[in-house]
Amino acid sequence: MSDIERDHRELPRGIELIKGDYSGKHVVSLRQFDPESISLLFEITDRMRTAELREFVPGLLEGKHILLLFYEPSSRTRVSFDSAAQHLGARLSVENNPQVFSSVSKGETFEDTIRTFAKYTDMIVLRHPEIGSAEKAAKISEVPIINAGDGIGEHPTQALLDLFTIWEHTGRLEGLTGVAAGDIKNGRTVHSLLDGLSMYPGNTVYLLSPHELRLDRDDFEHYEAGGLNLVEIENPTDIPKDSSFWYWTRTQKERFASLEEYEAMANRYIVTPEFLNQHGNEDMVLLHPLPRVGEITEETDSDPRAHYFQQVQNGLHVRMALLTLVFGRRF
Ligand code: NCD
């Protein structure tokens, strides 16, 4: 079976592959991507990054109107999309918490909400608590849907900036050994990152988590079938010494049935400078999608391997590049 056929089989129904052409397409899953499309995005990201802010073409997205539709809380994703849109001269509407402030509170369906907002705007950036919601929106929306997180499903734009940060540090995305730690079961950023890494040959990811927060078996098989080598561990002493990156995550409190269940799982692995020296190596990079809630101490921030705030910065440039490409503009 060719790669393209395999990708088609695993893609959400009705969602197109990017294949080097982002123009007008929904971005709901990392499974739409391939290495060439990622390289193109990184090329534009690099240009966005190296240009002085005043040199960004403020007219690049002139006449375009973007809606940020966020059913769940967000800091980095929402404000970086907002900032990216404004740097490029797009107009912007922000609907936070539509469950309270829009007709959703009167019982309007998700589908009608999407149909309505698609009439006013040229793109909808959507965050929603339900897995598959971005795909559902994409099937009925006249304008591109960008998935900014669908429950425990995916968070493709976060994975793109995570991959960019790994690439920036290592110069490659293949033949890497890395660690993803924390809530692997519920962490959507990890899911998209694993999809991203499985596109490239020779990658191995050690998944460090309590047994209860392991990947669902279906997901585990999906990534392995995609060519990624996964090793599940529960003890930090099993972290490989030759990791290029560590991807730490928080335990996803909002996905647990009770506070007790959450507390029993939270903060099993806390990165401190000593932990980093004990289990890491000199050349690795420490990443985290943020927010952190105790699993990396503030003393760790001054360690040159701590790159999570660089990730935050990269998020702006990656999203500027993505908006530019989806609107079919050149930069
Ligand atoms: C993540 C998310 O919302 O999935 N945050 C983010 O977008 N940077 C990670 C998290 O909430 O743990």
Write the layout of secondary structure elements.
Layout: H1 3-10, H2 35-50, E1 65-70, H3 76-87, E2 91-96, H4 98-101, H5 110-120, E3 123-128, H6 133-140, E4 145-150, H7 156-170, E5 177-181, H8 188-197, E6 204-208, H9 217-225, E7 229-233, E8 245-248, H10 259-265, H11 273-279, E9 285-287, H12 308-326
Parallel strand pairs: 1-2, 1-3, 3-4, 5-6, 5-8, 6-7, 8-9
Helix pairs in contact: 2-12, 3-12, 7-8, 7-12
Q: Compute the separation of the termini in Å.
A: 36 Å
The best one-word shape is: globular
Cα radius of gyration in angstroms: 19 Å
Total strands: the figure is 9
Bound molecules: N-carbamoyl-L-aspartate
Average pLDDT for all residues: 94
- With strands numbered from the N-terminus, the spatial order across the biggest sheet is 7-6-5-8-9
As residue ranges, the low-confidence spans are 1-9
By DSSP (H or I, 4+ residues per run), the number of helices equals 12
Strand content: 5-15%
List the secondary-structure elements in sequence, H or E. HHEHEHHEHEHEHEHEEHHEH
Find the structural class using helix and strand composition. alpha/beta
Biggest sheet features = 5 strands, parallel
Summarize the structure.
The chain has 331 residues and is of the alpha/beta class.
Explain what you see.
With 331 residues, the chain is of the alpha/beta class. The protein has twelve helices and nine strands. It has helices at residues 3-10, 35-50, 76-87, 98-101, 110-120, 133-140, 156-170, 188-197, 217-225, 259-265, 273-279, 308-326, and strands spanning 65-70, 91-96, 123-128, 145-150, 177-181, 204-208, 229-233, 245-248, 285-287. Strands 7-6-5-8-9 form a five-stranded parallel beta sheet, covered by helices on one side. It starts with a helix and ends in a 5-residue tail after the last helix. N-carbamoyl-L-aspartate binds at residues 76-77, 149, 155, 158, 188-189, 249-250, 289-290.
